[in-house]
Amino acid sequence: MTLVLQQLIIGLTNGMVFALIALGYTMVYGILELINFAHGDLFMLASFVALTLVGMLSIADLHGGALFGALLLVVAACALFSGGLNWTVDRVVYRRLRSAPKLAPLVSAIGVSFIFQNLGLFWGGLSMDVMGGGVAAAAPKAFPDLLPSDNLLGEGSALRITMKDVVVVLSSLAVMAGLFLLVRFTKLGKAMRATAQNPTAARLMGIDVDAVIGWTFAIGGALAGFAAVIYGLYINTIHYQMGYQNGLYAFTAAVLGGIGNIPGAVLGGLVIGVVRAFSDQAIGAEWQPAVLFSMLIVILVFRPQGLLGSTMREKV
Amino acid sequence: MRASHWLTISLAAVLVLGGCKKSAQAGSGGDPKTIVIVSSLPRTGSANAQTTTIVNGIRMAIEEAGGKVGDFTIKFEDWDDASAKKGDWDPEVEAANAEKAANNPDVMAYIGTYNSGAAKIAMPVLNKANLPMISPANTYTGLTKPGKGEPNEPQVYRPTGKITYFRVVPADDIQGPSAVKWMKQMGAKSVYILDDRNLYGKGLADTVEATAAADGLKVLGHEGIDPKAQEYKSLMAKIAALSPDFIYYGGTTQTNAGQLLKDMVAAGLKSKFMAPDGCYEDAFISAAGAEIANGRAHLTFGGVPPEKLTGKGAEFVKKYEERYKSKPEAYAVYGYVCAKVVLEAIAKAGKKDREAIRQAIAATEQKDGALGTWKFDANGDTSITLMSGNGVKDGKFDFITLLGN
Amino acid sequence: MDWRSLARRFLGFESVALAFLLLYPLAPFLDWMLESQQLPVRLDRQLVTIFIFAILALGLNLQVGTAGLLQLGIAAFFAIGAYTAGVLTVEKYPFQLGFWGALLFGPLVAGLAGAALGAPTLRLRGDYLALVTLGFGEVVRVVLINLESITDGPRGLNPIPAPWLPEWLVSTEIDPTGRRQVLVMYYLTLWILVALVVAFRTLERTRLGRSFVALREDELVSACMGLNPTRTKLIAFAVGAAIAGLAGVLYATNLTTTAEPNTYDFNYSIMVLCCLIIGGLGSLRGALLGSLVLIGFDNVISPLLTRLIQGEPKPGEVQSVFTTFSNWRWIIFGLALVLMMRFRPNGLWPASRSHPEPRA
């Protein structure tokens, strides 16, 4: 029983991280119908920014309030970086392809993903202590263990809940709530929803569609930046190729939840996290991806619009 | 298109295909005084770090010789067997590399591959061309040793029956049992085995499992992991309930050994962690974090580690540090030794002839070289069966014991 | 049939025949170039790879370009073909049907797998289907790794024998250079590729071919006209999978091993899709051109460029991660993809009819 509870905690905490990345996917998809393959690699680059800042500001030596303040600073910087980068990529690459066939921006996104990966490789080669002194650029990098990982229930307890888990879950929930409020109640959010529903009509209503799309990329990117810091603090390893798997799972979460649907992406992320944990527990780690994706296929056969997606009538 | 056109084309096809019947011969090379040595290693993607040290080692050996052996000028070419689209070694590229080398009469030695899977593709091609191949990193047992892999191994890699493949690293059937022996020496009663489902890691983990069962070390479980996964917390939570004395991981730094160790500690496990030579590099310690690796990580490695070497070995370390401004990683010395073996064989053969050089390589006897004293056995394996056990202390590898077989 | 369509039909075959006639004598020529040391790369070998990739792209084109199904897991069917070939030919198993048996059964098994996957899932909308195919690709890869008793896990099944051909055509004595094998594979893959292109061309004028086009152009209208879209899609999906399986058989035969299951990962599927889109989705020549450009760039031009720019490091020189030119490979590859889409968003040589694309 303890073990079941333990796996549930692990699954949900992991799921939160997937959900944060999935949000950026689903927002862009909701508006552009573009599967942004570069999103996972954007997340990866943001994590390198985070690690670089942690090294430069010697954050590992700080405690208490100073540590908290420094982490906020890192979060802000990473969000700004990846939001800005995502916005720029849209401006330079995708915007010119708005009227192109739907799959053209997809290939561009794959191209951008390769470029980002290569930049991540170079970044890992910087001669800094946190990057391993630049000896092996391609090697995984340790992200310092900044949050306490003592068991909150006491070291004797079989169940482990740490400060890390609590911070990941609470801060992710706060950011998700913020995003939800933004999309639901602000003018920008309204413009986003309008553009997602029908770009042409939105333009006729006086909405600057390009600006709205730009903002969507910026916000989705900023979420990836936030996710990158959380990932670093929780998982403690970053690697220039980690965008692949994280992007894959985030895309999966976004589609599973009902693509374009924000609560759906969160739910999708959580489902993936929990399924992974229980598959490890019950079946064996080597079958994890197979279990995960078989379950997805089955879910989609019975719920073809995703978990929370609404059935859309085909437009004629 | 009329039917008669197709008839014409079909006829042409038969004619040209008939051309294949004439047995092709490797033409005689360009400059008779130039000998080319190539290496085929994954230079794009995750293995780049290790292959860079291997190539550094090779270059150093050739530079030491002044780029010449007797009258021959030695040219070295550093080939990539990875492709951008795969981001790792690519079977198509490895096959193309092997054939390219086989067909270039100037090429007298093929240093590679890094991955045992790639070796399986290159070996038969090079064997038919009678081109000696020396690997600095393949450890899959079936590549050389009869009766230890599939029933058709290793004959399937030697269509001509000659031994053209050599390796300077001890194979998994040496390293696996050494690991078990060491775990038992440290008083372990139980082990949980994990592997990365790659040829290297899986092969080694299987050997460890078989030996452990025979030697009375209790195997609590053997699982594969997804080496690209973000974390292994749920796996470690499951293992924590069994509290094994050791967790053995058949895998490398690149296949996430650091993360496994980290999650093992995070799950509150008090077990120790053992991994093979694929993790014996500074990158492993920096990936896991020094505090986590200290005292927990145990690594086996073929031969004596570079810093414990005396004579030539110590010299190699010193020269490498001067030359490349960094410490030599484990694989650097293998690359260096591969090149040394080839250069010495060329000197001994004294002529630009694959068969002569192949025989000279097979007869290699290194006395107090960078890896100590050894020779190749009848299968093309190194005679080194000595493994060393290393721990981590203060964020650095720390030699603990020798594990003879 | 008016003269215009007749002319188009004839022209279509003419271009195929022309390409064929150009490619036909290329292999012996390249072989001669190689023998006389004129070439730094093994071009005929790379052409075999490109042909196999093009066959794979043709299969995917049927699914994505013709049936409008966004498919992100073509590597799964490719792998099924390769492993069927492995199981049917290696010594370990009693079948030992040889290459020609594998060529028959590989596509069959892959096609059946395609039908089995397609039947329950093809009614899904665009990107949900994309996820299902992606998921299927991952499931197949993981199953191939873990079902070690059948697939030999990461070791792969080998050796896969070379195609049996009559002794008077191809001699059986050991060939030290491996060039004969490459030539055989060259002609084999070229013949199969051309046969497929001709078959597709012919298909376009049959009832099934027209229903494919109708489906691609407008699913709703074609359903109103009495076509059964689900059935038509299923046929396209299964046949596309079978062709991918055929490519898999050729791939494994060419390598003489199935290689490790990780070869057939998501990346591979994505690369085939890239080939298709870069060439021009929905057109046969697009699939061929895309494979030529992308694989040619990755396998041939990029290593050449690397050597050209990087040159020989001088003795004593310390290379850093930045100065090693091969480390720039992804940036160059990525930029190439971005720029090609920037300037040719419909592909290098798009279909003339209209812009086919999967619709949501």
Please state the second-level CATH architecture of the largest domain in chain B: 3-Layer(aba) Sandwich
What is the structural class of chain A? Answer: mainly alpha
Poorly predicted runs of chain A are none
Q: Kindly report the CATH topology of the largest domain in chain B.
A: Rossmann fold
Number of strands of chain A: 2
When the domains of chain B are counted, the total is 2
Radius of gyration of chain A, taken over Cα atoms and rounded to an integer in Å: 20 Å
C-alpha Rg of chain B, in Å?
A: 23 Å
The domain tally of chain A reads: 1
Q: What is the CA-CA span between the terminal residues of chain A? A: 53 Å
Task: Say which CATH homologous superfamily of the largest domain in chain B is assigned.
Answer: Response regulator
Quick overview:
The complex is a heterotrimer of chains A (316), B (405) and C (360). By secondary structure, chain A is mainly α.
Give an overview in words.
The complex is a heterotrimer of chains A (316), B (405) and C (360). Chain A is 70% helix and 1% strand. With 316 residues, chain A is mainly alpha-helical. Chain A has one domain (2-180, 207-302). The longest helix of chain A has 31 residues, at 2-32. Chain A is globular and about 65 Å long. The longest helix of chain B has 20 residues, at 330-349. Chain B has 2 domains: 34-170 and 311-370, 3-Layer(aba) Sandwich (Rossmann fold); 172-302 and 387-403, Rossmann fold (3-Layer(aba) Sandwich). Chain B is of the alpha/beta class and 405 residues long. Chain B starts with a helix and ends with a strand. Chain B has a 7-stranded mixed beta sheet with strand order 8-7-9-10-11-14-15. Chain C has one domain (11-165, 177-310, 322-343). Helices cover 68% and strands 0% of the residues of chain C. Chain C has helices at 3-23, 26-35, 43-66, 74-89, 98-121, 126-146, 148-151, 179-203, 207-217, 219-224, 229-255, 266-279, 284-310, 329-343. Chain C is globular and about 70 Å long. At the A-B interface, helix 1, helix 4, strand 1, helix 9 and helix 10 of A face helix 7, helix 8 and helix 9 of B.
